[in-house]
Amino acid sequence: MELPSSPKEPSSLPGQKSEEVEQDALKLSLNGGAVQGLELVKDLAELERKLANKLDEARRAAEQRISGAEEEARRILASAEAEVRQMGDALKTRIAKESEKYAKEGRAHGEAEAERIRQQADSNIEGAVEYVLSEVLP
Prior knowledge:
This protein is about 85% helix and about 0% strand. The chain has about 140 residues and is mainly alpha-helical.
């Protein structure tokens, strides 16, 4: 076997490479690595763009849900306030009716009591007049 005459010539020994071949392989490897690195950077940028889009979509969807929930809360609050006002009005009406009913019952009871006292007094007046006259007149 013959040894290479210069380091630039490929080695004739199987499994051995010359320094130049090794450097070329290293350059190709690095160049291929640069291409792969560029593709990786492009892929990462595309992935970042897609994730940013998904994040924006999720943010918009969340804002819409929040807006919808706030609107629903305002509607529920307005409905509850209207119901409370209706209940308050109904209660005032009921109180007024019951007050009028109790006033009528009280008036009727008072008039009945006054009439009973008048009738009792009428019967007692005659007896009282007779007593007074009997005491005053001999």
